[in-house]
Amino acid sequence: MIEEIGIVKSINGIIATVNVPKKSACEGCTAGTCKIEEQSIEIEALNQAGAKVGQKVRVEIKSYAYMKGSMLVYGLPALSLVIGAVFGKELMSRVFMNTDSDILSAIFGFGFLVISFLIVKVWISASSKKTESQAVIEEILG
Fold this sequence. Notes:
Layout: E1 2-12, E2 15-21, E3 40-46, E4 56-61, H1 63-95, H2 101-127, E5 135-141
């Protein structure tokens, strides 16, 4: 489980928007160049705990859903780019003999990449309606 602590910014039905401070890249930074609004992200979460606007809450995200989403969002486009490039160079160069195989490789690689982005967009739209892949407010803190 991935846990985040944040403040409820707004509530719309059973979904709450939680403002969560960024970690990793911003943690320990003393430069002071970031704007306050850039130092946090907003997460939409199921409001199981019944939190109200302004309350500090603990939000949980299932690791499985996070990993599955990451693999699809990053892995599918990368794989599609490679498959499209190989398809263009090896197979389509036999069909279009008068065209440079490197140009076909680039065209089909980027074509497959664009198609994969559309597939990811459709998947994200469909999975956002499923509750098992959504962040959940588990607890109201102080």
